[in-house]
């Protein structure tokens, strides 16, 4: 059976070739034309960024719920009490599922990043007000999500990075405990970590944080909804304890637009109690306008994602999510076992959730080339460069849409084919002279000409154009010093966006 080719998205569609204003069909056709350049969001072949339950009618229900609340502004819940009713329902459901009690409080946010940002902001303010900490630190495993580094940069916290076990990719509780100091405002653990799908030792780390009077946040954004429902399924071993029921855990984030399968823009941040939650709220009355109270980083915000999330949660229900989680669990186990039978591949760590990182066990096999070959076969697997003992790999997010045994077998067959083609193609080589040249560059003083040269050496074309094969670009970026890569990545993205008017 022929499989669709996933073309690299191109941003060269003539946006100024506008459809007529009075032709609704033409306007919608234009939008569909733009979408044709994107990765597919259904069918399970895009194994990153999107989450598909594979359930008929769910998208239609969500769209109708979004449309019903499209004009509702969540900025002022006294003017729109429906916002409070929906949010209370969702927070109550999340708290019940994830170990909360009578005092648990929560906030509906736009996504995992905002939930993590708010958790860090709340911890900073709590440390300042309750403990007098003026130069706060955040203690993170090196596998913690980038959102926490973003939060530290935005809110002025210093990051204390803790290495993980090189075999399991879990942080050691003793190492985390040793990193906690008088300036620690927050300790973070993952359930699971995104890169490898493993759970950090939540109970042990939370206990160590509590002994020092420090808050402990569990990042369960990607897997919390799945793991919590999986433990309700009969005949499946439950995951280690990770939620608010664990002593010492003071906050937890969980995304609904991942394994809750709601439309994008839906996450929940849970707190031990409302008193802790209030440290992250913003209120302002010292101006001539209306009194402002914000529980999130947004002011004005559409209630459409909230309504869509509520509708999908109601439709699927606990039994539905438990069954979806069972399917994903069984599919992940089948996938891991199948990868173990493909010569040249190895799974990193022992995944406890639905995320699988696949590295090469053969120097002649480049995982980035495997990712390119899989894309040509109609699958998108997410490349992950080597870092801190984790080798270069491809990352697979298993959702319910790909969970049928025949679909997993189809994926494994494609992966075996891609491995054979990648082995014949050969690994990507990086010019040592390029690496030496790059090592001499100062990211803080790069001028426009040096940036352009560095991007050209990395394989990025004029105007930010990317090649059909991404392996060479990824290999170069992986070889560069991290700070230089961080300096160049915004330059790549900025070149995709137009500047100027008219």
Describe this structure in words.
There is one protein chain. By secondary structure, the chain is an alpha/beta fold. The chain is 41% helix and 12% strand. It contains 16 helices and 13 strands. It has a 7-stranded mixed β-sheet with strand order 1-7-6-5-4-2-3, with helices on both faces. Strands 10-11-13-12 form a 4-stranded antiparallel β-sheet. A two-stranded antiparallel ribbon has the order 8-9. Helix 3 runs parallel beside helix 10 (304-339) and helix 11 (367-376) packs across helix 12 (405-425). The longest helix has 36 residues, at 304-339. It is globular, with a radius of gyration of 23 Å.
* Largest sheet properties: 7 strands, mixed
Q: What is Rg?
A: 23 Å
Q: Termini separation (Å)?
A: 48 Å
How many helices? Answer: 16
- Low-confidence stretches at least 5 residues in length (pLDDT < 50)? 8-13
Number of strands: 13
Mean pLDDT comes to 92
**Helix-strand category:** alpha/beta
- Strand arrangement within the widest β-sheet reads 1-7-6-5-4-2-3
Secondary-structure element series: HHHEHEHEHEHEHEEHEEHEEHEEHHHHH
Beta-strand percentage?
Answer: 5-15%
Relative helix content: 40-55%
Shape estimate: globular
């Amino acid at each position: 059976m022929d499989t669709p080719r996933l073309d690299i998205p191109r941003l060269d569609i003539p946006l100024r070739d506008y459809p007529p204003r009075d032709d609704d069909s033409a306007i919608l056709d234009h939008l569909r034309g733009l979408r044709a350049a994107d990765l597919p969001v259904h069918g399970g072949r895009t194994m990153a960024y999107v989450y598909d339950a594979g359930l008929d009618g769910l998208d239609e229900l969500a769209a109708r719920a979004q449309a019903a609340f499209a004009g509702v502004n969540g900025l002022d819940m006294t003017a729109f009490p429906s916002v409070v009713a929906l949010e209370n329902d969702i927070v109550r459901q999340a708290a019940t599922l994830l170990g909360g009690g009578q005092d648990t409080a929560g906030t509906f946010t736009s996504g995992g990043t905002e939930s993590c940002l708010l958790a860090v902001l709340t911890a900073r303010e709590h440390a300042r007000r309750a403990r007098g900490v003026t130069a706060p630190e955040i203690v993170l495993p090196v596998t913690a999500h980038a959102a926490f580094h973003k939060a530290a940069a935005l809110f002025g916290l210093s990051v204390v990075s803790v290495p993980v076990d090189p075999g399991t990719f879990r942080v050691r509780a003793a190492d985390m405990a040793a990193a906690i100091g008088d300036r620690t405002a927050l300790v973070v653990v993952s359930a699971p970590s995104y890169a490898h799908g493993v759970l950090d030792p939540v109970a042990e780390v939370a206990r160590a944080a509590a002994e020092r009077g420090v808050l402990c946040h569990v990042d369960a954004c990607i897997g919390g909804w799945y793991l919590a429902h999986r433990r309700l399924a009969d005949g499946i071993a439950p995951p280690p304890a990770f939620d608010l029921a664990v002593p010492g855990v003071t906050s937890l984030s969980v995304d609904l637009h991942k394994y809750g399968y709601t439309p994008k823009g839906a996450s929940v941040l849970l707190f031990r109690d409302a008193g802790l939650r209030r440290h992250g709220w913003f209120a302002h009355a010292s101006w001539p306008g209306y009194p402002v109270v914000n529980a999130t980083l947004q002011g004005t915000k559409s209630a459409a994602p909230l309504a869509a999330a509520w509708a999908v949660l109601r439709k699927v229900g606990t039994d539905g999510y438990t069954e979806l989680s069972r399917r994903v669990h069984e599919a992940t186990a089948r996938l891991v076992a199948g990868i173990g039978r493909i010569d040249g591949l190895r799974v990193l760590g022992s995944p406890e959730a639905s995320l699988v990182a696949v590295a090469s066990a053969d120097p002649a096999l480049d995982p980035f080339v495997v990712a390119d070959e899989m894309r040509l076969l109609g699958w998108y697997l997410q490349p992950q460069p080597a870092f801190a003992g984790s080798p270069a790999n491809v990352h697979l997010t298993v959702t319910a849409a790909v969970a049928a045994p025949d679909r997993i077998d189809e994926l494994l067959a494609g992966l075996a084919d891609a491995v054979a083609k990648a082995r014949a193609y050969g690994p990507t080589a990086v010019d040592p002279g390029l690496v030496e040249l790059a090592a001499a560059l100062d990211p803080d003083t790069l001028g426009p000409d040096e940036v352009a040269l560095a991007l050209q050496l990395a394989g990025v074309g004029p105007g930010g154009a990317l090649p059909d094969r991404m392996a060479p670009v990824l290999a170069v970026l992986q070889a560069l010093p991290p700070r230089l890569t961080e300096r160049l990545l915004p330059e790549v993205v900025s070149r995709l966006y137009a500047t100027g008017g008219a």
